[in-house]
Amino acid sequence: MSNKSLTLSLSAFILVLLALFFFLQNYVFDRDNRIEGMLSTLNNAIQQKDWTAAEKTYDDFNKIWSKGKYLIEINNADQDFSEMNTAVKELKSAIEIKSQADALISLTKISGDWTNFKKLVPEP
User: Fold this and answer.
1) CATH fold of 3-117, please?
2) How far is it, in rounded angstroms, from Cα 20 to Cα 27?
3) Residue 41 and residue 111 in contact, taking contact as beta carbons nearer than 8 Å
4) Domain ranges in the chain?
5) 75 pLDDT more than 70
């Protein structure tokens, strides 16, 4: 096998691998803008102090987050991923103790990180 054909084969493999990665990431998270919808629903429930709806929406959000968080970790800095993971856990705690202020702070962190994570090249 010549160097040129080896280079082309490796380049094609890498492109297919990247395409598969972004397809999976999009399929798990961005299908019908599920995450944004859940974050918006969570925000509304917390604003209205509807803790039952907030807990149910959080559980739905956490199921999706748990399925695909490692796809996010691959494309983002470890610190950013850790901050998002911590904010998700803090949101759960804030909902459990019915702390509107803490829940909104955690939700704001999650929303900001999520917006950054969706970029092709996330900001530091």
Assistant:
1) Four Helix Bundle (Hemerythrin (Met), subunit A) (1.20.120)
2) 10
3) no
4) 3-117
5) no
Task: Encode the chain in three state secondary structure.
Answer: CCHHHHHHHHHHHHHHHHHHHHHHHHHHHHHHHHHHHHHHHHHHHHHCCCHHHHHHHHHHHHHHHHHHHHHHHHHCCHHHHHHHHHHHHHHHHHHHCCCHHHHHHHHHHHHHHHHHHCCCCCCC
Helices 100-117 and 51-75: angle between axes, nearest 10 degrees: 30
Q: With contact defined as beta carbons under 8 Å apart, do 50 and 34 qualify?
A: no
**The model's pTM:** 0.74
Residue 95's nearest CA partner among 62, 119, 69 is: 62
Q: Check whether 98 has a pLDDT greater than 70.
A: yes
- Report for 34-43, 51-60, 63-72: range of highest mean pLDDT: 51-60
Q: In the structure encoding, which two tokens stand for residue 35, read together?
A: 């995450």
